[in-house]
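Good day; I would like, with your permission, to put a structural problem before you. The record follows directly beneath this note:
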Amino acid sequence: MKTHFILKNALMSFIAAVLLLSAPGLALATIESATSFRIDLTQAKEAAAKAKWSEPDRVAVTSDGLGWGAGEEVGSRDFWLQTTAPMAIGLSWRPPIYASLRAMVHHPGTVGQLYARYGADGKHWTTWQLLDEVKQAKKDTADHEFSGVLRVPYRESARYQELRMKYARREDVPWSSDEEALVEELVRREPKFFDESAPFIGYIQFLYEADLHSGQRITGLEVNARWSLGGKHQAPKDENAYKGRDVPWRFKAP
C-alpha cells in the first residue's frame, strides 16, 4: 500500500535542531506533518487490495464505482466497506499518540457513518470510533466529509512510555530514540504485549456503513491525517542512521 507522506522538510528541520542543540546528543524538537490515504473504487484491482465489503458476490467494482444493480431497479442494501490495507502514520522510528482526521467519501446518496480505529502493530486494534459528519452547504452533493480525533489515553500508554524512557537512557544501543528497535526488542521479550495494548498510533483502519441504493456507485475514499511528535530526542551515534527512516511507522506483528 502506498500513502502520500508529507515530511521531508519537517524531518530536515528536526535533524537540524538535533544537531544544533545537542552538545551531548540530546535535544528538544517537534515534528508536525500529515499523511494521506486514498482508495479509488473505480479500479477493481486497487479496491480489492485495499478494502473488503459486504456481499461481494452482488456488490462489485466497475469503472463507475462500487455498487450494485441499475438505476431502474428498486431497493437498497445495508452496506459496509472496511479498509484492509492500514494507513501508517508517524515516523519509522517514532509513532504518534494523536491524529486529527479529515475524510471524504465519494458516495452519491444518503450519507452514511464513517468509523476509525488504530493499532500499534497492524494486527491488534482498538474498538471503532465514530467520526463526525461535516455538514455540507449543498444537500445533494456526492461528497460526504467527516472529521475526528484519535488520541491514546495516558493510562493506556503509561507502561510503554516508561519502557521508552528507560530505553532512551541506554548506552548499549546504536540509537536510543529508535522506537522501532525498542518495539522489536519488546516483542521478543513479551510476545503478547500488543494483544491488549495500543500505546501509540502506528496504523489506522476505516469502516464505512450506509444504505446503498440500486444504481448508486461509491467512487472513492480519501483521508488526511495530521499528527505531531515532540519531546526529547537523542541523536544516533551514526548520523547515517536517519537515511531511509523518513517513512511512516512500519513495524508489523510477527
Summary: The radius of gyration is 21 Å. Residues 4-242 form one domain. The first strand starts at residue 4 and ends at 6. DSSP finds four helices and 15 strands in the chain.
